[in-house]
């Protein structure tokens, strides 16, 4: 797992893990505030319980950021692979051809005109815009739909990942916070730090297995149309 895709994922997931371990330490009272008192003498103070709720709610924002960034980077890596291998539109599987044609409808003709020289190859990159991929809507169902659309596997080890079922909780809480439907205190009081850690662990395991599926997809060149390559 030394690819750029996994390096970025590992760095992001470690950041999230450190944050949730910090939350657990706060909730258990093992971490306290040290403030300078009179005469420069340190004064130890308990963390306010309402602040802890806010910090726990913020954990959902971190988790959702990890989920969406991971999936966006994964799909972007797939397009870069096609580009770097010089794969042409005629060689790719029918599902991908449909995606590219659908994406091209959204592109500015003048903008992509200058970037296309060999149309059969350049049309793939011209039809990709990573900002169009996801927008606050990533959960396990969205990932399954994306997997079916692009042709990679969405199967994971349920015992370790829950097949991504926690992603709906993460997305819902993230959207409630982002759109102001719920306060941070409301969201934060619903889960203990231990419960959040379990959600984080299953989510990281799920995303890691999805990335492994995508790397296998790229390694085996499963993006190619078997009818044009002669492969079964």
Name its key features.
mainly alpha; two-stranded antiparallel sheet; elongated
Name the poorly predicted regions: none
How much of the sequence is in beta strands?
Answer: under 5%
End-to-end span in angstroms? 28 Å
Number of separate strands? 2
Return the structural class: mainly alpha
**Oligomeric state of the chains present here:** single chain
Helical amount among residues, as a percent range? 55-70%
Shape: elongated
What is the domain tally? 1
Q: What topology, given as strand order, has the largest sheet?
A: 1-2
Radius of gyration over alpha carbons?
22 Å
Compressed to H and E, one letter per element, the order equals: HEEHHHHHHHHHH
Q: What does the average pLDDT come to? A: 85
Q: Helix count, per DSSP? A: 11
Largest sheet, if any?
2 strands, antiparallel
What does this 3D model show about the protein?
This protein has eleven helices and two strands. By secondary structure, it is mainly α. It has one domain (4-225). The chain has a two-stranded antiparallel ribbon with strand order 1-2. Helix 1 packs antiparallel against helix 2, helix 1 (4-27) runs antiparallel to helix 10 (193-219) and helix 2 packs parallel to helix 10. The radius of gyration is 22 Å and the shape is elongated.
Secondary structure layout plus pairing:
Elements: H1 4-27, E1 33-36, E2 42-45, H2 49-84, H3 94-104, H4 109-113, H5 119-126, H6 140-150, H7 158-161, H8 166-178, H9 184-188, H10 193-219, H11 226-229
Antiparallel strand pairs: 1-2
């Amino acid at each position: 797992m030394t690819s750029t895709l996994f390096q970025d994922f590992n760095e992001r997931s470690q950041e999230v893990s450190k944050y949730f371990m910090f939350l657990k330490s706060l909730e258990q009272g093992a971490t306290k505030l040290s403030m300078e008192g009179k005469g420069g003498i340190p004064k130890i103070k308990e963390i306010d319980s309402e602040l802890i709720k806010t910090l726990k709610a913020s954990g959902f924002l971190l988790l959702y950021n990890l989920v969406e960034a991971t999936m966006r980077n994964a799909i972007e890596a797939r397009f870069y692979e096609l580009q770097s291998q010089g794969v042409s539109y005629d060689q790719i599987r029918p599902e991908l051809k449909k995606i590219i044609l659908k994406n091209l409808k959204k592109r500015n003709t003048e903008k992509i005109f200058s970037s296309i020289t060999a149309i059969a190859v350049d049309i793939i990159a011209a039809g990709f815009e990573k900002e169009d991929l996801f927008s606050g809507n990533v959960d396990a169902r969205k990932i399954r739909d994306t997997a079916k659309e692009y042709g990679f596997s969405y199967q994971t080890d349920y015992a370790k990942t829950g097949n991504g079922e926690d992603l709906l909780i993460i997305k819902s809480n993230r959207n409630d916070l982002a759109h102001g439907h719920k306060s941070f205190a409301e969201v934060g009081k619903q889960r203990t730090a231990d419960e959040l850690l379990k959600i984080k662990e299953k989510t990281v395991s799920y995303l890691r297995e999805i990335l492994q599926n995508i790397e296998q997809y790229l390694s085996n060149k499963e993006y190619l149309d078997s009818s044009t390559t002669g492969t079964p």
